[in-house]
Structures are given as structure tokens and as C-alpha cells.
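Re: the 250-residue chain
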Amino acid sequence: MKTKVVIIDDDINSIKLLNMHLAIHEDFEIVASATNCCDGKKAILENKPDLLFLDIELPEMDGLSFLRSVRNGVDWCMSVVFFTSYDNYTIEALRLEAFDYLLKPLNHSDLESCLQRYVEKRDAVQEHPDTFFQDAPSSKERVLLINTIYNKKLIRVDNIGYFRFQAGRKVWEAFLDDGSSMPLRRTTTSDVIVAQSPDFVQVHKMYIVNLNFINTIEETRIVMNFPFEEADVKISKSYRKNLLDRFYSL
């Protein structure tokens, strides 16, 4: 199945350029484009895109405000890539959980890298249907439906403090804020876990943490917030920079 794409940009030339770049990718289909917020909102709600390319400088309102205005109507999984001529929106864009952020004029290699990361995330979720997100039936809280070793569990993302790889059993284990833990199936890899939420970040080959439970980042370990303050979560050099970038962009 092709990835449905919507582009919203008041610059028609920018839309044409992105069209040209995406045309060489058979698994991406541009289903609609718009040059203003009104048409953009209609394009999103009618087409339900998997991937939205959104300019931050729109005429009626900035793209960040526009995204906030349509979020309540988006009840499916939609990744957002912001693009702009300026880089002073980066932190705010990340706070809105943008999948990526590109500067104009669009650089072919940056765009290709963005698309590759999206494909990897999309395929990881599709290839491991035992672990995926869905909306809670009565709320907008994000929940994780997981097949554990024993059964299926529906867990809120903000109940998960961290994951630890159990080398002896060769499985990842999720640690919850009620003091319990759940061993996941062996088919669940670190890439699959990280792909499930922007709050999950790998900090060591044996640890993945929920950013919202981090208290302090020390040289070789993380001090977690209650109720995980006794957890001995290690950091390795290869993951440290990404962790710092993600943590300080919150």
C-alpha cells in the first residue's frame, strides 16, 4: 500500500519541487496539496494522509498554530515534516512531535534521508503487528497494545518508565510505574519499540527510556523520576548525543 502524502505550502514552486522529488518514489503518492490553511485542513481531513509536509510560514497563521488547530480532528497515525526558510522554529517544531524538519530550499539528500527514516519506521510497525499504537476508545491518550510472552496488554505510554534487554532470556522487558514489569515477545526489537513513540529513546544497547521520566543525565547513567529513581539505567557513548538532543528539545 502506498504512503499517502499531503503538501501544504503557500509557495506553489515549492510544492512543484517537492512533487518532483517524490515522483521518483513509487511507494509515495501525493493525494492533495494546498496553498492556504482552509484548503489545507480540508485536504487533511478528506484524504487522511500518512505523511504531511507542512510549511511553517503560511499566510493566515503559522504552520505550528495550524497543526494545533487540526490535531483534534486527526484520529489516525499521521507523521508531520515541517519545512521553512528559517531555522528559529526548530525547538517548537520538535515539541509538536514533528517526524522531521527540513530547511528551504529543499536539499535532495536531506529529503531522501527523511523519506528513508519514515520508510524504516513505517515498515518496522507493519512487520511487527504484535506491537503497535492505537487511540484509546474514549480518549486521545496514546496506548500501546503489546503481545507479551504470556498475553496481550493495553498500556498507556506514560505508564512505561523504561525498557531493559534481558540478555539471558533475549527479550526486552517493559517497566511500569505501578512497579510491575512485562517481558515482550522475542520478535520485538529495539527498533520496533523506539518507533512506537517520540517519547521512547534508546540510551544503551540494553536500555530504552521514556523521556518524560528522566530527572538528570549523568556521565554514564540516568537518574529517573519517581517511581523509577532506584533504576540503574546506563548510557553508552554511541547513544549519548542523540539522548541529549532529544532531552533538551523537550
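The longest helix spans residues 108-127.
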